[in-house]
Write the structure tokens for this entry.
Amino acid sequence: MRLDVVSIFPEYLAPLDLSLIGKARRDGLLDLHVHDLRDFAHDRHRTVDDSPFGGGAGMVMKPEPWAGALEHVVATGASDAAPVPHLLVPGPGGVPFTQAMAHELAAEPWLAFACGRYEGLDERVYEHAAERMRVTVVSLGDYVLNGGEVAVLAVVEAVARLLPGVVGNAESLVEESHEGGLLEYPVYTRPALWQDGGTTREVPPVLLSGDHAAIARWRHEQRVARTVARRPDLAAPAAAVGGLDHLDVRPAVPADAPELLVLQRACWMQEGRISGSWHIPPLEESLEDVARGLGEWTTWVVRVPSLDGSGRLVGSVRGRVRPDDPTVWETGRLMVAPDLQGRGLGRDLLALAEAGAPQSVSTYWINTGRVSEANIRRYKRAGYRLLPGEGSFPGTVDLTKRRR
Ligand code: JD8
């Protein structure tokens, strides 16, 4: 991978000579070039900034030196594989830099970085560059730095360490924070018993057990617990990755009714939109209807793990023996929060509901909108057979499955 960095403080990028990145450069895994912007300011004082049009504090970076610098980068780095670089311009208003973006950038042959200073670059520099190459304004985080160099150091390190051969043991890349959405687990090394002054500090015994399955389970639980405690914003998607196993599943209680009403309204909007009718029970039911339903059906709720059980309600399903036929188990209100769909939670919830059926049951029954092709495909994949004709409610179809 080729990297070009343009800055008025090229020495700021010296840390990229050190450690793994420095070694990767010496091993030819990384072709990094740092350029001084002032080399492209041709006046006696090599001026790169000027006062802002419209007034205001600070100075703005002039466009001409940037145009010259970018022209030089393209001229010296172009190849058939990559005639122009992907230009990344750090800025507090940019797209948040994430591990996912790091993976995307690590797949590219050539990245260039424009390090701004002062109040930023003349806006026409972005227009000029965008006419010649892909431009992404990227932010390191929601705080203000004095320039782009620190962001470039972070982005280059996060991207370069994903390149094959840069980090010796690639396996260690897998279990890191933000890989798979969970934070990292706690780590320990010798001594197993640390005499810390008057305190003897132990290592969790499971780590000394040699039971790799138990160690893996403990480490995953630690990752979920840390994520829930420190980054609840990451918890839901992360916890949902492994289906229901890492989510908080429990029988519903009356206090769940309000959140259930909200979730069912959100989940049936899709069916209402594609069926062209909002007259669907889950969309018309009142809070009282939902609360009454909790008394008539066995209902499960799924929450994001939290320290006090008040994690976000992200899924639910209910089941009951058909009032007039004890051999039939009806499953209903199977719902997964829209932002967490597509991770297998629906499949797991259906299995959970079926597992709740008493011995008398020999047939599973479920109903969905005639237009809900995705649901019908999902239930067929789960072994259900579509019954011909109109379902038990207008505009719906019934599906059944023999209990094995
Ligand atoms: C580039 C100039 C300073 C910013 C006036 C302070 C990134 N996460 C981030 N925070 N700040 C930056 C960043 C700041 C920069 C430049 C990146 C170029 N400044 C400016 C606007 C307000 N001064 C950043 N990535």
